[in-house]
């Protein structure tokens, strides 16, 4: 059982008033709020050990390097990667996917196929379109049903010996669907394809085990797991990271440079050109510690309660339709009210202190599938409460009254 009252004290932002009302923050799928330990760790870094890493012999540089490498080890341990050089620090999920897709852009050739799914965020679509355009490979899409679940029989039909990459999200940001990634990975491997899992929406709720999953790449963003913006992780199996070409050139990623030829550094530095977000990486380690302190089993169980309660309460509103009714779902509720534009609902509930996201959620193909311009999305985190869901429901009722 989580002590939510005490957990909420860890998040100073939650005590705020917005538009004269207590803030109800239900935009967690866009970014998570930060606990005080994370804020304190940022200040402590800059006040005590700020220096560039992997370069200086001086003490501060060594301390900063040690702290950065300690954070890498924490993340390795958190996702159960075999080697710490399989953990690449990036600027976020988008950066991580671009790094991998760009690499495949030079490994793929005409006739090869890349499989993504109908549930992808734009950042797991567009980089693969770039890669296919560059290489002449073809992009294929696993379709979904009206519940927002991937149709696995169709996936089976897409796979063949030309399939070189399968890139799918662990959890959909727009609908909350949890995809059957174990099965997806296993089947792709039967054809020798590499599998990238976009874990941006999963990592706030689930502790992934990359060895057990046997995925080739797993990517996520720091800011969605209570860490700083501009931080992210690319996990890649050693053999795949060795096969991929470097993404950015510059300092840190080289072994030797002459004007004729450059040789590259070993992993993970081959993919970490330039001065990274040092404080961000270190503090991401603190954020992961904080979440593990609460415990992912506790988080998942409580958020499921919020999902069930929120679903039941919102469905009491006449004319409200939930988009995304998958069997396996995380704490995201996307909805629309007949005859009302989602944006208008978002504006009114904001006036009542409730933060939700409205729009296409960077998933235009999902909105096209359902024939809608967008949805209102309420996404719950472990620091939210049922009382806050009641406030949302009242706010939506009020918006409906004003707009109908
Ligand atoms: N994939 C998914 C499923 C997401 O939800 C997001 C963020 N909304 C991204 C990718 C992109 O993450 P970021 O903007 O942090 O790079």
UniProtKB/TrEMBL annotation:
Organism: Myroides albus
Transmembrane feature ranges: none
EC number: 2.8.1.7
Names of the cofactor(s): pyridoxal 5'-phosphate
Entries under CDD domains matching the protein: SufS_like
Catalyzed reactions: (sulfur carrier)-H + L-cysteine = (sulfur carrier)-SH + L-alanine
Full protein name: Cysteine desulfurase
Molecular-function GO term, any one: pyridoxal phosphate binding
Enzyme class: transferase
The Aminotransferase class V domain, residue ranges: 24-392
Matches recorded under PANTHER family: CYSTEINE DESULFURASE, CYSTEINE DESULFURASE 1, CHLOROPLASTIC
């Amino acid at each position: 059982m989580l002590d939510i009252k005490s957990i909420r004290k860890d998040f100073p932002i939650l005590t705020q008033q917005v538009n004269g009302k207590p803030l109800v923050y239900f935009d967690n799928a866009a970014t998570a709020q930060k606990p005080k330990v994370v804020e304190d760790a940022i200040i402590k870094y800059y006040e005590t050990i700020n220096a560039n890493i992997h370069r200086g012999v001086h003490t501060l540089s060594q301390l900063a390097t040690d702290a950065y490498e300690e954070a890498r080890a924490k993340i390795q341990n958190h996702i159960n990667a075999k080697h710490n050089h399989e953990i690449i620090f990036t600027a976020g999920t988008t950066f991580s996917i671009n790094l991998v897709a760009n690499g495949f852009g030079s490994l793929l050739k005409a006739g090869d196929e890349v499989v993504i799914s109908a549930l992808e965020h734009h950042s797991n679509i567009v980089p693969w379109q770039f890669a296919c355009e560059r290489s002449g490979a073809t992009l294929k899409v696993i379709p979904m049903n009206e519940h927002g679940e991937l149709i696995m029989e169709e996936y089976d039909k897409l796979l063949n010996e030309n399939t070189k990459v399968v890139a799918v999200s662990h959890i959909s940001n727009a609908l909350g669907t949890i995809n059957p990634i174990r099965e997806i990975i296993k089947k792709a491997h039967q054809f020798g394809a590499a599998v990238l899992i976009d874990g941006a929406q999963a990592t706030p709720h689930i502790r992934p085990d990359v060895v057990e999953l046997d995925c080739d790449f797993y990517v996520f963003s720091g800011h969605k797991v209570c860490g700083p913006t501009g931080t992210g992780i690319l996990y890649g199996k050693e053999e795949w990271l060795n096969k991929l070409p470097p993404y950015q050139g510059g300092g840190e990623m080289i072994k030797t440079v002459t004007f004729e030829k450059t040789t590259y550094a070993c992993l993970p530095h081959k993919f970490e050109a330039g001065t990274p977000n040092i404080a961000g990486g270190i503090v991401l380690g603190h954020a992961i510690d904080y979440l593990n302190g609460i415990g992912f089993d506790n988080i998942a169980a409580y958020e499921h309660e919020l999902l069930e309660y929120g679903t039941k309460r919102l469905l009491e509103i006449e004319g409200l339709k939930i988009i995304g009714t998958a069997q396996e779902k995380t704490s995201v509720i996307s909805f629309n009210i007949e005859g009302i534009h989602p944006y208008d609902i978002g504006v009114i509930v904001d006036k009542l202190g409730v933060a939700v996201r409205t729009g296409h959620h960077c998933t235009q193909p999902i909105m096209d599938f359902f024939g809608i311009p967008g949805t209102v999305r309420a996404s719950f985190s472990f620091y939210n409460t049922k009382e806050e869901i009641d406030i949302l429901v009242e706010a939506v009722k009020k918006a409906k009254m004003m707009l109908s």
